[in-house]
Structures are given as C-alpha cells and as structure tokens.
Amino acid sequence: MNQIKCIFFDLGWTLLEPCSGDWNLNQKFYELFSREKISRLDYNVWQHAYNTAYLPFIENPKMTSEQEQIERYTRFYLTLFDQAKLDGTFQHAVKLAVDMVENLATMSLIPGSLETLKTLKDEGYRIGIISDTWPYIGKRIHAFKLDEYVDQYTYSYELGVLKPNVFMFQDALEKSGFKPEECIFIDDQIKNLEAAGSLGIHPVQIVYHEGAETGEYPMIQKPSDILNLLKQYQ
C-alpha cells in the first residue's frame, strides 16, 4: 500500500522559475542596467546593496495586496539604486515594481510541471503548495493553470512567516488532514527540508537550478522525477 497521500511543492525553482534568473530583478531591470554593468560592480558592494534592499521583506513577510507589493518593491528598487550607486530614479523604481507585480511573463513554468501535477492528481494524491511568496502569485497560479490540480495553498505573505518556520508546514498539514508521515515536501533548500523533516514529513530535494546546495535527502532533478521516486514509498 502506498503510504504517501499528499505531496507539498515549493514554487520557486520547483514548479516555477524567474525568466530573468532572479526573483527580484526582472527583465526591465536589466534593460535599464545591463548584466555587464552589474557584473562590473564590486561583488561585496552589490551583495550588500541587494541584501539591504531585500531585508524588509524578510523582517516583515506579511502582505495584504498587490498594491502593497508594488509599494514595497518600489522601496526595494530605490534602496538598491542608492546602495549600489545606480542612476535609477523614483519613476524607474515604480515602473520596475509595477512590472514585477503585473507582468505575468516575469516567471514561467519549469518544463513538465503541469503534466506532473496532472498525473499525480489522476493517481489520487492531494497536492499542496508551501511557498515564500507575495500577493502577485495568485494571478500566476491561475494563468499557468496550476489551480486546476492544486488543492491547497500555504503562503508566507498570508501567515507572516517564512520557511523554515515550522508554522508554514503545520498550516499545510492542518489543511491537508493527513499525518506528516503520509506527506512529501519538495523544495530546493536544505533548511526548509530539515524543518519539514522535523515534523515527520518526508523531504525531497529538487536541484533544478545550478548552484543549489545538496544534502542527504532523496533528490530529483526536475518535477517529473517525483513520479519514479514515489515508488520507493510503496
């Protein structure tokens, strides 16, 4: 008998990927500031600028609307301009923030994602999302037709905490109605897998993008690989 009843997926680098290669720097950003120009910046200065700009999202993940997300990303870009000494204006920051939220083409499905979810759904699994994300995700979930197969969602911006906070996983388990040992969680980050595992959920690491730190957990390269891995839990 198959002991797994429910499969929780992360979104970023698990089912979705940013078209620009960065979740916070969209294509419009690189039209203003070329990748070559950014690469010429002092690495430590750039990393400090980026981390400083993003810190408010980590300190306060709670968010209530797309408008709030636009306002917060406007501040993100303004801080980035200032800290990295980029010649961006307030108007640039607003345009980048609006594009980040309203342009559905800033991210795309990882190949095989939708087909994998359909197969899992047809085989009777409950499917959930556990993701650190922002209010703009709802329109993308619908546009990419993920909502045709996903049964439940746990979003950081709604709960006000980020993974690896165990509240994210407890929320998902409560919504699922299943025991931890009946669930799998797929994510690219080891710290999140450790948190899920601490509750008894089976962790599976996906290493779709380059540079991912790997650990001791069962590993897949792409979403569709989970179909074969599930045989180990039967």
TrEMBL record:
It comes from the Bacteria. InterPro entries: HAD-like_sf (IPR036412), HAD-SF_hydro_IA (IPR006439), HAD_sf (IPR023214). This is HAD hydrolase, family IA, variant 3. NCBIfam families: HAD-SF-IA-v3. It comes from Solobacterium moorei F0204. PANTHER family: ALPHA-D-GLUCOSE 1-PHOSPHATE PHOSPHATASE (PTHR43611), FLAVIN MONONUCLEOTIDE HYDROLASE 1, CHLOROPLATIC (PTHR43611:SF3). One of its GO terms (molecular function) is hydrolase activity. Keywords: Hydrolase. It holds the Pfam family Hydrolase.
